[in-house]
Each structure stands twice: as C-alpha cells, then as structure tokens.
Amino acid sequence: MQLELVAKQYKRLNGQGRYVRSLSQSMTALGVEYATRYPRLPGYLRPLDQPLYRFGYDLPEFFTSFPISAQVERESIKHLTTQEMGSLLYFNRSLRNTVITVCDIIPYMNRHSAEQRTYQHVVERLFDRLALMGLTHANVIIAISEYTKQTLVEHLGIAADKIKVVHMGLNHQLFQPTLVSDALRTKYGLSADYKYLLFVGPETPRKNLHRLVDAFAMLRAHMPNLRLIKVGKPMYEPGYVRLQQQIEKLNLHQDIIFLEQISDQELVELYAMADVYVFPSLYEGFGLPTLEAMACGAPVVCANAASLPEVVGDAALLVDPLHSAAMAEAIASILDNSTLRANLIERGFAHARQFTWEQTARQTLAVYRTLLN
C-alpha cells in the first residue's frame, strides 16, 4: 500500500495541526510507511505574492490551506488531512483513491448568521464552498465525530455510508497529572492564594467566550479570590475587541489573565492547576481540550452542544451554553463541593484514557483498507 499524507505546514500548531502531527507519529510507531506531501503556491501565482502581501493577503498561506494542486502519485492512497483540502478534489476530479478528514463544516453552517459567521473575505467564503463541494469527489470521508458526520449528511447531502467516524486521540505522554511549578506561577503571576478557571481557545464567536465572562462576573461578585485564565493567541480581531470592551465594562481587567504564547508543558501545568476547566463552545467538531483537561486532573464544565456530549460522556458537567447563570451555577457547584470535584476528576481520568492516537491510527488504517478492497 503506497500512502501519501497531504498536509499543510503549520506556522502555529492548532487543533488540525495537532491532528496531522499526532496521526503521523502514530503511523510511524505502527511501522506504516508513508510520504508527506505539502501543497505549495502554484508557480503561475507567485508573481502576485509580494504585491498582494502588501495589502494584507498571504497567498502562500491561503493556497496551502485551500490547495488547487499537489504533487501526488496517481496510484497511491492519498489522505487529505483537513476539510479545506477538498478544494484539491474540486480542481482535480480525476484523483483516485482519496480519503479526506473533516473536522467540521462550522463556518459553512454559520455563513448566514450575523453573530457567528467568521469568513474574513469573499474569496475565503468562495473557496470554503468549493472545498465542501470537493468532498463529494472523495472515495471515503473520515469524520472526527458522529456530530460532524451528521452535519455532512444534513447540510451537504453526503451519503452516510461514505463517511467513517474516527475519533481524535490524546497524547497521554504529554497530558497527564503534574506538579505546578513555582516557575510557572512566578512567570505569569499566578498566586496560590487564588482559585482559577481555565479556558483554552480563540475569541471566535462559536467559542462563546463572552457568556463565560458573564458567568465569571457573577461568580466573582461572591468569590473575590477567583480568577479566569484565557490561553491562546488572538486569532479573530473583531471577537478580541468585543471581549476587551466587555471586560472593561464589567471592570474585570485585573481578574482575567491572558496568556498567548505558552509551551506545551506550561499548558499541562495550567490544566493541572485549574480548579475548573470551562468549555462553553456552541459548535465543535470534536473538542479535544476537554479531554486534555481531564487527563491532567481538571474537572470539566462544558456546553451540552454539538459534539461535546459525545466526546465528554458522563465525565463532565454539561450546561446550556446560552445561559450564563447556568454556567456559573455549575462552576460554583464544583468549587463548593469537594466530593463532586473529586468524583469528576476520577471519572475524567477514566474517560480520557479511552482516547489514544494509536487507536486513531489503527482505525484510519482500516479506512485505507476499504479502498484496497
């Protein structure tokens, strides 16, 4: 079996980047031979690169996210590792033996929502639509959750038997209980005298961060020793601006800590330090941070929306993400009840152990074999 993984080279490792890296490492550990292909900016577009960059358009970044060509072998099994790479299938419909991973189609689902849409410009919206049209030309689609599979069937009309669900895994060598170092507390000014809520992710509307801030404000009124840590570099400028305005209005600028560029080990320590990890997202294709937090010993409160109930099972407190008061109540129940907290931590450890990248790799190999058969 000749296998080629078609992947983007990530400047910053996001959820999709972790998927590509972890799947590749697990394939290697299983002794699977493969070649990795990285789409490039087509040569005929290179003269436009520098002129457009001066106007804020990064052509190499765009056309490695939404490729229109790639150097691949005709007879190989080609695994396109993100849904955006469906554009390659749209522009190259003669490609054979193709598998594509779909994490989510949330931007397309929210394209008509004034509050939730996140397309930066019309070209991005166009190519995302072309990429989703290209999905129909794949031989097999891997969806990372049953929820994502359901959205493909309902919103794009793709046949259910063409879609195989393969959950993402978890790096248990990295994400595990650990001691919180004095160096971390000193570096970021995290006094042991405070309790901490933790959120990991960007300010995009679907992450629902503004309702978490409202919930935090309710809790902060009765718990002056409570702080909220938000981890992640700003990725959506309008959402970041609105969030800062909200924090200023609620007079919480001294109580919410923003950490942008942190190491993996620092992230593990923050999970381990968190009194509650909160994930109020309205839309998720999977929701890997919830499992990362569980594996490090943090009790989890998350939204009862999209893929999250499927991913967290009975190991987290599920809340209505549209009601900040319900979110605040769930968080308070953990902070005030040591028995509940201990129970959630124990269930979280057991639940997170069920997700491994080796299992993800083996199930992905089984998908390849369906093409060979």
Portion in helices: 40-55%
Radius of gyration, in Å, reads 21 Å
* Number of helices, counting only DSSP H or I runs of 4 residues or more: 16
SSE pattern, N- to C-terminal:
EHEHHEHEHHEHEHEHEHEHEHEHEHHH
In total, how many beta strands? 12
Structural class: alpha/beta
Tertiary shape: globular
Per CATH, which architecture of the largest domain?
3-Layer(aba) Sandwich
Describe what this molecule looks like in 3D.
This protein is α/β, with parallel strands linked by helices and 373 residues long. The chain has two domains: 3-169 and 356-372, Glycogen Phosphorylase B (Rossmann fold); 182-352, Glycogen Phosphorylase B (Rossmann fold). 43% of the residues lie in helices and 13% in strands. It has 16 helices and twelve strands. The strands form two sheets. It has a six-stranded parallel sheet. It has a six-stranded parallel sheet with strand order 9-8-7-10-11-12, with helices on both faces. Helix 7 links the parallel strand 5 (140-143) and strand 6 (163-165). Helix 9 (209-220) packs across helix 14 and helix 12 (288-296) crosses helix 15. The longest helix has 16 residues, at 357-372. The radius of gyration is 21 Å and the shape is globular. The termini are close together.
